[in-house]
Amino acid sequence: MVVISGRDLNRNEITPELAAEIEKARQECREGKCVTLSTHQDIDRYFESM
């Protein structure tokens, strides 16, 4: 998960630091290090398992 603060959104730009975080998250997804939830039921099951 990439955390984006209001500060990042208010500037209406992507900083180099934010771009690096986004690329890291994309790479982790390509490597299968992510959770994909497609339905409301998937979401419910995911959070209930925590």
Characterise the protein shown here.
- This protein has 50 residues and is mainly α.
- The longest helix has 15 residues.
- The mean pLDDT is 83.
**Regions with little confidence, pLDDT below 50 for 5+ residues:** none
Class from secondary-structure proportions: mainly alpha
Number of helices: 3
- Describe the sheet with the most strands: none
Task: Provide the residue-averaged pLDDT.
Answer: 83
Q: Secondary-structure element sequence?
A: HHH
Helix content: 55-70%
Radius of gyration: 14 Å
Distance between the termini: 16 Å
Shape: elongated
SS elements, strand count: 0
Bin the strand percentage.
under 5%
Provide a brief overview of the structure.
With 50 residues, the protein is mostly helical. The chain has helices at 6-10, 16-30, 40-48.
Which keywords apply here?
50 residues; mainly alpha; elongated
List the SSEs and their pairings.
Blueprint: H1 6-10, H2 16-30, H3 40-48
